[in-house]
Records
---
Amino acid sequence: MKKFLLVCFSFVFVLSAWAQERVVTGKLTSKEDGSALPGVNVIVKGTTNGTVTDADGKYRISVPTSGATLVFSFIGMESQEVVVGERSVVDVPLVTNLTQLNEVIVTTAGGLQARERELGSANTILTKENLTAGKAVNIAAAMQGKVAGFQINATSSGVNPEFRLILRGQRSMTGDNQALIVLDNVPVPSAVLSNLNMNDVESVNILNGSGAAALYGSLASNGAVIITTKKGKSGVTDINFSHNVTMNQVAFYPKMQTKFGAGGSAYGTNLDGSPFFNYLENQSYGPAFDGKIRPLGPPTEDGRQLYTTYDYKDAHSKFWDIGQTNQTDLSFSTGDDKSSLYVSGQYVTVTGTTPGDKFTRANLRINGTRKITDKVRAAYSVSYAPNNYDITSQTGAIYDNMLNMPQNVPITMMKEWRDPKAWGNPNNFYNPWYQNPYFMADNYREKDKNNYLTGNIELRFTPVKGLELTARQGIASRGYFQKSYNGAFTYSDYAKNTDQSSKTDIIASVAEQSNYTIQSITDFLAQYNKSITDFNFNVVAGTQIIENQAKYMGIGIGGLVVGGLYNLSNGTGNPSYGEADFKTRKLGVYGKATIGYKDFAFLTGTGRNDWDSRLNLGSNSFFYPSVEASVLLSEGISAIKDNNLISYLKIRGSIAKTGLVNLGSTSPISGLSDYGAYYTKPTFSSSNSNGVSNGFPYGSIAGYSLSNGMVSNNLKPEITKSMEVGIDLNLLHDRITSSVTYFQTKTSNQTVNTAVSNSTGFSALLSNVGQTQSQGLEATLHFQPIKTDDWTVTLGGNYTYLNNKVNFISDNLPRITLATSGSATSVAAAGQSFPVIMGFDYVRDPQGRVVVDGVTGLPTQNSAVTILGNATPKHRIGTDAQVTWKNFRFTVLFEYRGGYKVFNGMGGSTDWSGTAYRTGVYDRKAFVFPNSVILGSDGVTYTPNTSVAIANGNGNNGFWSDGINRNVSSNYVTSGDFVKLREISLTYDLTKFFSTMGHKFIKGGSISAQGRNLFLWMAKDNYYTDPEYSTAGANGNGTGLNDIGQTPPVRYYGGTLQLKF
Amino acid sequence: MKRLSILIFLAAALVMAACNKYFDINTNPNQPTSVTPNLILPQALTATSFVLNGYNTYGSQLGGNAANAGGYGGFNEYVTYSYTSGSWNMWSPTYDNLEDYQYIIDKTTGDAANIYFNAVATIMRVHGFQLLVDAYNDIPYTHGLKGASELNPPYDKGPDVYAGLAVELDSAMARINRGNAMATKNPIDNYDVVFHGNMSKWMQLANTLKLKLIVRGLNNSGTKVTFANTSFDPNGGAPFLTTDALINPGFTRDINRQNTAWNNWAYTYTGTAGNKAWVPTLWILSWYDGTNLNDPDRGKAIYFEFGSIPSDQIGNRLGRETVDAPKCPTGGRWYPGTDRTGTSAGNSTGVLKGPNAGYPLMTAAESYFLQAEAYVTGIVIPGGSDDVTSFRNGVTASFIFLYTLPDLSVSGSPAADAATYMDVTNTGNYLADYSSVSGNLQKLEAITTQKYIALNYIHSHEGWNEFRRTGYPRVAESGRTATNTFASTVSNQTFRPDGLPTRILYPTSEAQYNPANLPSGIDPFTKLIFWAK
């Protein structure tokens, strides 16, 4: 970038004064890293006499013999004025200015660059400093809480959590709502994000609305995240090395009852009605803990008996490991006036909180530029990122098992299971229904291998001044291989037939899946720039061709014969197998025109037409335009320009329309993308009957079943119309920066695959119906109360208000189910916010009190499902602080989300097993249902119930484990509000230390300590889990539900050493 | 200028043509988007066996054939009878299966060459809808299976569905006759994995299904359904099923290719144990072990270790969950074989028989007992002779079914053993010895009780249906014991003297996706199926 500017500035290489003056020389460097700064403007104050620094940052200028002051200015740096005095050499270190940086490096659609002032819609820039403070492995985690209007959820747990990135709320009911990811000017699949080396990132520009992104085509109706990676700098050669060690530890464990252990009334009751203990039961409806020594499990075949105390042991939370992340980075960058080169490598190893889970990731990148002639420039960027998972395939089952296990079981002593005598050996394991979780973790494995290759080549040709032609080819490919397998275990006859044993032999099996995807994007665009008097015209015309291809193969076989050999050829019987291929194409033709007036008022119009192979021929073409305007009042109005209070004031607005083909998203295999291909016709399946595997073909008899999905005849793209207006205001020489944006979007023609009554013969219909809308406010405010040589303090934050709702769906379909967990669903419902949690509630009186039976005290479940809460946070706040003192730098970031609900899927399961906190609140005694009423005999009056108790507050068939409790979804809907300490870091800059030591070899460095998600504070009624988790996963719109597939939330803390050579 | 615009136009047309070709890549390479009816039929018939397996499971647990085994928990509403919309879902599997038959009907209507496919699919459509009515009473029928044109199908009353189904059977039988008279038509041969193209047997099945509709619709306690036509097709003198109708596409011990009941209750194809959470009830055993009736031959044919079952495993009572509740042996109590090695077990008598056994679509025994009841209640039917003969044929057919091995060979002498059962072992007991019945009520009780026994764990839902319709086999209302009733020990039901539920609820999906039409106020204890007592 700086080099490009140098080129521009060379044109302006003009005015120089002569003669009677003397010459001053010097070198300009970056204060931050000491690198030379080429292209810096050097002007003698009060004159038009100026120059720019050369490639080594050096300048030479004539100044008047006395009283000269030099002004150094460089885009992205704070301007400095230096009184020359008697000196003939003036070296100046310049300080980075983030506000000004915004002013230039905005990269927009197609790799076009625009100055901040030209943009009519909101965008936010995150610099590498913003991103790397917390040392997250995944860049998505590093962006959490930092950008107004950007909601990033870690939807899963594990060694490489998934993230869901949503700008300005969900628009599409069932289609993709995630922000478009653009890496070095080329859109890439969002999976690339989690495999990006964050240290390669120069900056991230977030285009919140669809307006600014409209030129990216339909992909950008969800906003865009534009990532620019580092390039070598001219004249600077650096080697960077860093190593980071991070620990990950369970941060929050569900609150459980700690008073009762294994057993239940099914085993009999004492005279006082208290239930019997049982040594192999996994329901915790036994007697209260008494600390006595009791047997656990039946005696073993060789006559041994395990005894433990009957008390609360907290083994549930001790089961989880403390994981560790090691990240090593090495990068090299160099450049001269013709070319630049940036090469980096990264290696990350992660061990998880689930015992035995491992993850490794490597990353290689080469970025370069080359000036071929004065008129032709080339740039390239290639990254290869392989990763490997070695994890258990039974995470959810293990967690469920742990949640259900009675609290008196000392599970951590059962880690050893291979020894036939060990208590953890499946033959000896106390519980006949659930397997030893350590055995599950070891025996059921999954190995995943991903190879990501992304890259692009770009040529820019400037035949005449003002005209630039660009050709670009980008690819993003992923190869995926998964092997999942489990070993055999043959139980002893004794174990199979002791007591109530349901132990049955485990047969070894192995399954292989592979997938290859490649996305190719070809761009041609022409840009012409011309100024006529006060007006500047910038016109762009371009075309883009996108092709996606994917191939999936899967095969599995059971009954492996040779122990420990997990190969498909080692199986018995017939294998199960499947394959799928997908291919889609899209062509976009677009144009853009910007008119600038006196460099402070701008008007931009865009238009794009897409042709999409996924729609039927004839209806596969769609056009969408946008208009945006901005006025930089602080430049245009002299009263503002000249006052000292306001340093920057811009008002802006935009109106845009974007179209998006929203078809499908997951394939039958692995949940990987099918790109929405082949959705226009219903299909027939050969190997299953409505989801049940049917064994066809049987020899020569083939069989097909009509799929349960119907498709409407004329699918169209979804159309999002959006508008936004905003204001950016900086005060007191940018000591205070602020920005406010109001936005509104409306998305119609929703392409919805909606569940329908089975009595139609089908279970879903894909058609264009419905409309959603959202509106909201995004605000950012930062101020610097202290700024001295030693101290800077910056405080601030961002706030987002979001109100999105479903306007209507269709007359027939008042709601659409997006995801399901237990008896609850996440639903798009007409007239409601989007999405809402629906499920069963109790029958209530008009005041909302639960109506119970006058004799039994039991409530009744409503036969219809009702709305139980809004699942999207209405309010989100990120607050951050940054303090630097001499060589120390301290940052902290909190995030709050509020105004929404979440359904906790583990609730029903733990109520059933009796470990849930709720089941112990009445000490397992008879109880009066809280806040309940009884309907009088007149059928109208409700009187509060204070005396009619539910008799059976205990036991295997009592209230807590019964459907009347577990099937009532509202019992597990809690507030989703939370505050998280997202990031905290303390860095000590070693640059000065090394320079005072006189080190020539080491140029700089830092040591730092950092933590992420260290604390989680949730609403009082939520004692279950992290509300960010989602059953629907990163790609599902059905948010608001979680289940036991996500292990307990984790906190990360560690330290980093960074050196620069 | 004119020339130029023509050129531009031509160029544009060329580009558009090229474009269309470039974008015409949306043909599905993974799955067909259209198939011929003959490829649907074998799958649909096989899927009906999965559907029926679900009904048998439901029927066995509501109807007293199976109880929760010791060592398993979490039965809750399944034993307390506090049913929710989530307990049991017969709905979606049945409608899903019906849609495949509907597809065949839609594709072959007016297509003379495929008249047999149309007739067979219609008969199976009737079979599926009757299952639904018998479980749910009112269901979407005339408005059902219409795809996108009826997204919220209204419900039809149970009796109206019955009347409509009888008409559909008439038209299916007429089409078989028309097909028989046609010189050229597509034979259905081995696409038909039930009768292998024997259309006379399809005619028998149609007549027998119609007989079931009429017997239930013209209930002994009054006419519940107005049928347009109550006559049957003589089918060359053999109007009703005389042999068991079995679904078998070639079941074998392989992944997803086992008889589904075997796969569920005995062993999976790898040899691991099937579901061990259920055991026979003491009540059902009492019909074999001499408590209610003495039937050691069928007992041994069905149950593992019958007569010598260890006392701690002898059967359970629904809802009894105490620590000493009987447990289930590996491979289940319903597989009588002594070879208990999962990878070689099979080839046995009884209800599960083996991984390769055909799955009963309708048994000959049910056909005979329906005929017997028709004779008693005065429904005019062709063929046959009288209720005595039909009753005896029914019992004998039950013995034959149970004695038949997976390869359809018969082990032992079912006819002789059946005669011994009726005439010697239980002589004087009118429930088995039909010669000692007096009056129509006793006749009906004997017929229905024997039907209940004959369908035990084969089509348990039909036993449960007939119990609800007739009240037979008789259960105690007070002084309930494990052998005089199958009501759960922890029944929450207080409305009915027998302590039993009368029906299941509509599934949650109907509340979610068809709420405007869903009948309200459905109670598992008080809302009866229209033919029920």
---
Amino acid sequence: MLSIKLIRYSPWLVHFNTGACNGCDIEVLAALTPHYDPERFGVRLAPSIRHGDILIVTGAVTKKAAVRLKRLYDQMPSPKFVIAVGACAYDGGVFKGSYALRRGAKDVVPVDVYIPGCPPRPEAILNGIVKLLQKIEKLSGVESK
Amino acid sequence: MTEARVEELDPKNVIGDLVVKEEFARPNRRVFTIDKSSIREAVSRLIKAYGETSVYVSTIAGVDRIEQGVMELNYFISILPRKEVIVLRTQVPRTQPAVDTLIDIVPGAFAGESETFDLLGVQFNGNKLLKRGFFVPEDVTSKGVYPLRKDAKW
Amino acid sequence: MLKVYADGEEVVKVEINTGYNHRGVEKLLEMNSFYKGVFISARICGICNTVHADVYVRGVEHVLGIEPGPRAKYLRVLAMELERIHSHMIINAIMAEILGFDTLFMLMMRDREYVMKAKEVLTGGRVIADYFMPGGVRRDIDDTKRERILDLLKKVKPRLEYYRKLFETDPTITNRLSDVGVLKPRDITLHSLVGPVARGSGIKTDVRMEDKYDAYDEIDFNVIVRTEGDSLARMLVRWDEALESLKMCEYILTHLPQGQAVVDERKLPRVLPPGEAFTRVEAPRGELTYYIIGGGRDRPYRVKVRTPSFNNIINSGFSYLRYSIADVPVILVSYDPCISCMERAVLIKDGEKKYVRLKDIVSMKRG
């Protein structure tokens, strides 16, 4: 599909924090600075959710934030993909068992790539984004056949 | 009052008549247990004695003492000219935990009172801004559960 | 999240909606052993994780009745001061970004990488240090690492001085920040506002000077106070503090005492005896307090955490009134909230409700 192919060349990211300690957030922020140069992959931050292709979820999805996460995901135009960054977005991390959390991002939205770490280094985050782009490429390869 | 005199004024001399018991929490924080009806008086006197810009309420910590059937409220107050933090401690019955609000004297108590109400269920009489769900998610508040209580189940 | 009610351009009411970040940490700390608590408490805030771990560990040490050696104390202060530098840099970078100064944001983030590298050389982690343990620290440094950190700090120093001068003299910045969000001294103490917010309004309070914990009784430093009370004063306090921290780091690295710094974790006690401790620390954002009660088990009976942003953000709703909506993000960022708190705001203007990004509010300037 043409639209999936376009995403592979210039994916725009939307970042959403669902109750994180901000460790993953500042590493996502750092991954978008010239030192790590994400723009060589065509990756940049989208100006609004309606322009987003990839949703980056950080944080141990709190019940209050889960509602907003679902709303945000629904507002994104298809095709869309989700990356869960950090141990907390996987299943709560060190906060597992708390009364205020859901069971990770996969409880709320379908996740395509998990990036483990607490927090993962900016290089690891870029690596995860590239792996997602490779996955998308495979998808578009299958579709076009 | 000159700077030197304020530093030398011992808080015990300001609220001593209200104090029921004196202990200490490490490292060297004096804990004054007072009756729950005297909290407002004690805080007002401290502000008047040291000056509005020399005293602030640092932390309000509620503790569920389930074995004793009480909830303990600790008001940590920083007295800047003495570089000292004192603790005003009071107890309220666990079945009806309530104490008078401080927010009309010290608006900064709003954050601590909101949290103690939402997590432990202590009522602060006169504080009309208390609400459940300030922090705690709705599925827990809808069950009427105060999560920080020792017998909380969610 | 902020709920801003506006009449035309003027702010008439502000409500703070919290809870999006509430993870039930205090309950978790009661449900886990007090050693696991060292790692849970660090992850309350990633930007100031060393100070959280430090104040928790000191509280536990008071209850246990143990004390770390002098070398460990100096290394702890080094980790915390490095964190202060990086935290102040990131909030100033975010302020630049909010004002539309994207290039300045990128430059500051690039220079901040030196400080992150120094933190990594010292503690093994760029962001979360996991460096503290009751009784001392978990890693030591040798001369090679010491020289490397000094080298990195030498690279950062001229950059910090340049940014400080920029914030003081550049009209684009000073025009947007001067006289915005003015707080008087009695506003500060009556509303329990702490940290650079208090010091920017003339209140001389700094927990490092008051409690003299760890090695602060032996290291000289100035408490930075300004009297203007506006957003510019608060940001300048942070730049001056970053420069003071840099001097302290250099002092520590050249005056490290000898001795054992690393704790033998196998020999640590298994149970937290009955007792209570109230410890405080000067986090980059202000006074952070922990109240720990031991109950004779491996789990604490109660741990109460009061972060500086708890007071500064929740109690500061009054300070936005009568300013224009475009000033709201500037005032909020000058209080140094965590990034998560800053993501979105609800703007209720002339009865109409809109979800906006803070960055977009800034561009709603009048004329």
